TrEMBL record:
Domain PBP stretches: 31-259
Assembly and binders: The complex is composed of two ATP-binding proteins (PstB), two transmembrane proteins (PstC and PstA) and a solute-binding protein (PstS).
Membrane protein topology class: Lipid-anchor
Annotated family: Belongs to the PstS family.
Gene Ontology cellular-component annotations: plasma membrane
Protein name: Phosphate-binding protein
Pfam families, per the entry: PBP_like_2 (PF12849)
NCBIfam families, per the entry: ptsS_2 (TIGR02136)
Length: 273
């Protein structure tokens, strides 16, 4: 699905602080068009930062096409996009294009169960077997003798795509899975069924569900950043330097600045700094 937007909102005053890599205000007198595309999972972050950037620089037009990670990398290489995004690591075959890679956020996915479930920890292999329907009873994981109710996300969900890719069971989801539309729906479904298991972004962890440790590692922002928690992924932008105009260079600087990273966090991402 192609999703694009064009932003050109009002101007805000400010200043540029080179020590922090921040770009603010209209002191740069930027003009031109920024065209990006790629991951659907990074869409909200790209839209929000693009909106703020064009509010600061009203003569800049920002467009983001939400067409998928692979298309983002390909588009950046071919020049369709000045900036491509991927909500995963860049593949070895994609690295042959010698694109510049920059991680601008991280995303953590928590594996959740009902608070009354005695299970505390689960391995990547066990998660895959549960979601493929090869483990169907909690007793197989050291829990009570009760059927496992698998809760997943809808087709096209960025969180589902990342989860399946990380756990490595793409196109093998058990036919018995309950499908939840959105993180909130998965959370409430797991909270309402003592035998269920699901997955949500970290921001949906609360007292109504329990986040399992994965191979002994807690689902925390710190553990995502130190790369010990395995059910996580980077949000990566890729580009060829020669395809960047001044406005695009300034936008990248803005996204990586403390101001841009605050927007990343407000949109549910984990800032890189």
């Amino acid at each position: 699905m192609l999703m694009a937007f064009t932003l050109a909102t009002g101007c805000q005053g400010g200043s540029e602080d080179d020590s922090e890599g921040q770009v603010s205000g209209d002191v740069t007198n930027l003009t031109g068009e920024i065209v990006g595309g790629g991951s659907t999972s990074t869409k909200n972050i790209m839209e929000a930062t693009g909106e703020e950037f064009t509010a600061i620089n009203p003569d800049v037009i920002f467009e983001y096409n939400s067409t998928g990670s692979s298309d983002g990398v390909k588009g950046a290489d071919e020049g369709t996009y000045a900036i491509g995004t991927a909500s995963r690591q860049i593949k070895e075959e994609e690295k042959a294009s010698n694109l510049t890679e920059k991680v601008f956020a991280f995303d953590g996915i928590a594996v959740i169960v009902h608070p009354d479930n005695d299970i505390q920890d689960i391995t990547i292999e066990q998660i895959a077997k549960v979601y493929k329907g090869e483990i169907v009873n909690w007793s197989e994981l050291g829990g009570e003798d009760a059927p496992i109710v698998v809760v997943s996300r809808e087709d096209g969900s960025g969180t589902r795509g990342a989860f399946e890719e990380i756990i490595d069971f793409e196109e093998a989801l058990t036919a018995d899975a309950t499908i939840g539309e959105g993180n909130g729906n998965v959370q409430s479904t797991v909270a309402g069924n003592a035998n269920s298991i699901g997955y949500v972004s970290f921001t949906y962890i609360d007292s109504t569900v329990k986040a399992l440790t994965v191979e002994g590692i807690e689902a925390t922002t710190e553990n995502v950043l130190n790369e010990s928690y395995k059910v996580s992924r980077p949000f990566v932008m890729v580009y060829h330097e020669e395809n960047l105009n001044d406005a695009t260079k300034a936008y990248i600087e803005f996204l990586m600045s403390s101001e841009g990273q605050k927007i990343v966090e407000s949109e549910g991402g984990i800032p890189v700094k």
